[in-house]
Structures are given as structure tokens and as C-alpha cells.
Design brief:
The complex is a heterodimer of chains A (111) and B (114). Chain A has 111 residues and is mainly β. Helices cover 0% and strands 57% of the residues of chain A. Chain A has no helices and 11 strands. Chain A has strands at residues 4-7, 10-14, 19-25, 32-38, 44-51, 56-59, 62-67, 72-77, 86-93, 100-101, 105-110. In chain A, a hairpin with a 6-residue loop joins β9 (86-93) and β10 (100-101). Chain A is globular and about 40 Å long. Chain B is an all-beta fold. Chain B is 0% helix and 46% strand. Chain B is built from no helices and 10 strands. In chain B, β6 (65-69) and β7 form a beta hairpin. Chain B is globular and about 40 Å long. The chains are: A mainly beta (111), B mainly beta (114). Chain A binds chain B through residues 31-32, 34, 36, 42-46, 49, 51, 89, 91, 93, 96-104, and chain B through 4, 31, 33, 35, 41-43, 45, 48, 50, 56, 58-59, 91, 93, 95, 97, 100-108.
């Protein structure tokens, strides 16, 4: 059974700092991995999707990497801003079907 | 274009009543997913539809839960004889093959059972 762990559970940083969020999974037979952000009381917004054959994806200040063999992904956020404050979730799936989610990292960026 | 929409946004019901939650996926998306997010807990998979294939119902917590998808588009999640532990946010997502099945989520329905 796939298990997904996100560390740390919470993170508080001053504005402008670069930071890394971690996601680990137990079964390396994945189809893809997706990073989301969730604002309080809202749904999930897709940030980046990495296919199992890819090593990284970039979008603006965000960069996600994938090391399938070690069961790890990282989300790098450059030059953090208060608007980045949210809960960040990673999700893995073995095929096009259901995803297994981590419990998330709650990020607070202080002005 | 329009994203995934869900209705109602909030639903308060009495214990024992039946409820129906609706999801309108992005047009053209063949895959549709339901998840549940309980207070202080992670997202829990409920059910997955893909085209005309039999749905993956492996996440439904009990036989009080059912879902259907009509015409390959709109989906309805039905909870019969609601219990207080059913209180949660119910999230729907859709995806399609041409975009590597990247999941796009709706805003969710917050269900409160009193």
C-alpha cells in the first residue's frame, strides 16, 4: 500500500527566503506525482505535475524534482512571498486512477 | 475555460437524511474523481470514473455511499442515512489523457451532519 509523507508538517519563514518542501513515498512504481496548494476553505490548485520518466518541472518561482528510485520529491520555492502562504500537498498515483496524498506542509511566509 | 464546479457549496443536513452532491467536470475530461477531506485529516480517495469503464469504487467507506456519472459528464455522489462522521469537505476532480491526467479540483462541498 502506497504511503506518502510530507516533512515538515509546518514551516514559517521570512519573506524573500528560498525554501524546500519534501515529499516521500514508499512504492516507487508511480505514474506521476503532482504538487498542489490549498488555501484555507478552498479546493486544491495544481502547481506542477511530474511524469515518472521526468526528473523535474519548473513553473515561475517553483521547481519540483523527482527521484523515483529513492521515493522522493522536493518542491523548491524561490524568493518566497506572503502570498505563498498555504498548505502544500503532494500526490502520487500508480496509473491514471486514484491518488494517494500526503498530509501536507503548512507554509507561513512572514512579511 | 470553465473549471470544475460543485454544488452545493455548503450543505447542512440532519442525521439519517440522504444527500446528493453534484460535480460538473471540465468539458472533455474523461476521468472524474471524488475525494473526502475530513477536519484535520488528509484527502481520502472515494471513487474514480474513466470513460465507459467500470468505476473504481474501492475507496467508498460503506454501502451508504454511491456515485454515478451520467453521459460521461456530470457526476452525483449520494450518501444515504447520513451519520455525523460523514461531515467533511467532498472534493471532485477531473482530468484527461492528453494532459497526462493532471487533476483539476473543484471548490468542494462542505457537508455538515447535525
Amino acid at each position: 500500500k502506497q504511503e506518502v509523507t510530507q516533512i515538515p508538517a509546518a514551516l514559517s519563514v521570512p519573506e524573500g527566503e528560498n525554501l524546500v518542501l519534501n515529499c516521500s513515498f514508499t512504492d516507487s512504481a508511480i505514474y506521476n506525482l503532482q504538487w498542489f496548494r490549498q488555501d484555507p476553505g478552498k479546493g486544491l490548485t495544481s502547481l506542477l505535475l511530474i511524469q515518472s520518466s521526468q526528473r523535474e518541472q519548473t513553473s515561475g518561482r517553483l521547481n519540483a524534482s523527482l527521484d523515483k528510485s529513492s521515493g522522493r520529491s522536493t518542491l523548491y520555492i524561490a524568493a518566497s512571498q506572503p502570498g505563498d502562504s498555504a498548505t502544500y500537498l503532494c500526490a502520487v498515483r500508480p496509473d491514471a486512477g486514484k491518488s494517494t496524498f500526503g498530509d501536507g506542509t503548512t507554509l507561513t511566509v512572514k512579511p | 475555460g470553465a473549471g470544475v464546479s460543485q454544488s452545493p457549496s455548503n450543505k447542512v443536513t440532519e442525521k439519517g437524511k440522504d444527500v446528493e452532491l453534484r460535480c460538473d467536470p471540465i468539458s472533455g475530461h474523461t476521468a472524474l474523481y471524488w475525494y473526502r477531506q475530513s477536519l484535520g485529516q488528509g484527502l481520502e480517495f472515494l471513487i474514480y470514473f474513466q470513460g465507459n469503464s467500470a468505476p473504481d469504487k474501492s475507496g467508498l467507506p460503506s454501502d451508504r455511499f454511491s456515485a454515478e456519472r451520467t453521459g460521461g459528464s456530470v457526476s452525483t455522489l449520494t450518501i444515504q442515512r447520513t451519520q455525523q462522521e460523514d461531515s467533511a469537505v467532498y472534493l471532485c476532480a477531473s482530468s484527461f489523457r492528453q494532459n497526462s491526467y493532471e487533476q483539476y479540483f473543484g471548490p468542494g462541498t462542505r457537508l455538515t451532519v447535525t
